Give the backbone structure.
Amino acid sequence: ACQCQQPVGNKLSELLAPISEQIQEVITFREKNRGSKLFNHLSAVSESIQALGWVAMAPKPGPYVKEMNDAAMFYTNRVLKEYKDVDKKHVDWVKAYLSIWTELQAYIKEFHTTGLAWSKTGPVAKELSGLPSGPSAGSGPPPPPPGPPPPPVPTSSGSDESASRSALFAQINQGESITHALKHVSDDMKTHKNPALKAQSGPVRTWNSRV
């Protein structure tokens, strides 16, 4: 974004359509697995994954991410209550998952306090999305896991993980990762599942009743 001018009208929603579709898939997956023993884990992810839409939130994206983190904690507290004396892997999973959003809040506070920072002189994001691909300094966050099992116990120390995530956010702020993501947005990706997403002015906000 720091290399591009902000898209006007519905263009930003169009560029974010693939993210919105993936968010909706996570929510749908949770709804289809209400009978799962890991339903609280799935709910924690489902209720907070919408924080990825912070790029469309202004002027306070940080508080928006915190709101999503708080929604996740409603369910992670249940996970802790159920597994804290049974299986430490679930406790470690809760800590690792919630740290994603707390560190994202710190990143936003440092670089994008009032919203995604756009360039005033660069090409508009729509134009840049069609430029040839170049080497990227870092990759974006991984997609949500396809199945319900929680991730294994982290093998590295908490400080190493924190440093790695901080480095990732620093790379994202350079603009290269965001630019790289825009280059792969095609018309087919924007409409193959839900054309109505084009008209959205922000991230999908689907709230499920808490059980």
